[in-house]
Amino acid sequence: MNIVVTLLKMLGGLVLLIYGMNILSTHLKKIAGEKLKSLLKKATDNIFKGVITGIIVTIAVQSSAVVTVMVVGFVNAKILKLKNAIPVIMGANIGTTITAQILRLASLEENSIFTLLNPNVLASVFIIVGFLLLELKRKQRNRDVGQLLIGIGLLFTGLMTMVDMASSFSDLPILGKIMSELSNPLLGILVGAIVTAIVQSSAATVGILQAISQSGIITYASTIPIILGQNIGTCFTSLLSSIGTSKNAKRVAVIHLSFNLIGSIIFMIFIYSYQWLVGFSFWNKAIDMGGIANFHLIFNIVCTILLLPCIGLLEKLANLIVRDKVVVEEDDEDTSQYLTILDELDERMTNIPNVAIYNSLNVIIKMSELVKKNFDKSVHLLEEFNVDRLDRIQEIEDAVDKIDVTVANFLVKIGNLELTKKENRSVTTLLKVESELEKLADYVYKSSKLIESMNDKNVRFSDEAYKEIKVMHNLIDDVLKRMTTMLRDGDLDVVIEIQSLKDVSEIYIDKFKKKHIDRLKKAKCSVDSGISFIEILTTYEKIVGHCTNIAMECFNSNMNKEYVTRHEYLTKLYVENGAMLKKKFNSFNRKYNLMLKNSSKT
Length: 602
Hints:
Layout: H1 2-41, H2 47-61, H3 64-76, H4 82-95, H5 97-103, H6 119-136, H7 140-166, H8 173-181, H9 185-199, H10 202-213, H11 220-233, H12 235-241, H13 247-277, H14 289-307, H15 311-321, H16 353-383, H17 387-415, H18 421-456, H19 463-489, H20 492-521, H21 527-558, H22 566-601
Helix pairs in contact: 1-2, 1-7, 2-4, 3-4, 3-12, 3-13, 4-13, 4-14, 4-15, 5-10, 5-14, 6-7, 7-10, 9-11, 10-11, 10-14, 11-13, 11-14, 12-13, 13-14, 13-15, 16-17, 16-18, 16-19, 17-18, 18-21, 19-20, 19-21, 19-22, 20-21, 20-22
């Protein structure tokens, strides 16, 4: 019965350890999600900065598995390139060893200068400070710091519970027999890999080993293969996270496994060759917490030093294992590629809201580029009707609709998380922008269907009407280009340009409608062509209107305003930027007036 109680307490300690790690990781990412993203992006500079980045982020998050999953997500979202992700993974393997080094402090003598760093003492300090921050501070950021510190405290508390309970097993013959069996390298590696794959944390399983080492029943011979196996087992998390991702994201997981597997094989060959030929004096001696921590650290540092020059070879190996599909030369108009945009909406990134929001914005920007592409096709359709081109427009519209639904669902998931005010405002803005963009896409598609209807009825514009439509094409092309630029760069000057273009478009649409009525009166065009002309102009007016709605949302977001009426927005825009608006208006008006005059001469 005592054994059962002890096992339950050990299991409780393990649960506290893992739960503490989860709290620590979650709240650290909430506090510094954007910094983690920018820190990882800096790994693109050179391999050494990549390794250091991996070490720093992993020490902060206290889990190489979490960092590797993040890297898989960043590569999948095209924030990191595959080659630049490799040193980050190597650094993550070194960074995860810090946990074992901290935990070893529990084995130091009580009169040591490091007594205050004993996990038992640190656990109490972190929990007390964390609790005070949680209860006394109202700001969400301070409360997150409090949760983070409590997570660290629980982590250490869990480990020390395991250490205390493990000493109870020292007199059990069966445990000694089991540990002696694990001195078989293949069996030890297998056990280490399986346990780590289940727990999904090499730091946690090394902590378990350190706890058991306090009983004095495990040796270097039985521990070394388990540690090697743990480094292989930790790859299971990244392999699991790569399911359903892009080819390059899968390659990140393969590289993680290859790196640890090759390193383990090299160590096995060296250690067991030396043991067989010469022999280690400590081989059958009991290993302590410090010995486990040191071997874990040495293994990962040596593997990184040995394989860092081989990054190119590791990348080639991953490319061989995860092959690209053989691409048959396709028509440039193939639309099957467009849905790959959705690869950036990685569910793994929702636990880092800043990154998930960034990825959502990227997808919305690409969605706007698709809308612009469809508009260009509709322009060509008017110049020369083509059924295949119309089919492409339909396919892109279908892709945009699917992207729209997926982005909206993804943003709603992010919105249900615990967000800061800034993050919540960003999600709200993106939901509104995505909704406006979908309506805009519908009107672009509608313009192509109007042209199809004209073709079916054999309706043609007069030369004058066609020249006027061409001017509107150029104007809307300018608006759509600026809309994408505004979404990408968040430039408020572009907001002013879009509003100026809207003002110009209203004048030209009104002018062209009046001229159209004159043509009808003078019988210069048919009633059917006149109806089509008005319908297309109305559609273009709606397109410009939705672009200005998107501009308003971006303006409000940059001004840190969540709900601003159109009247308030226009008042603020014209009062504060009246001179610039007038200057831009005159510039665009001259441009299109000149365009119209030149087209009339030809």
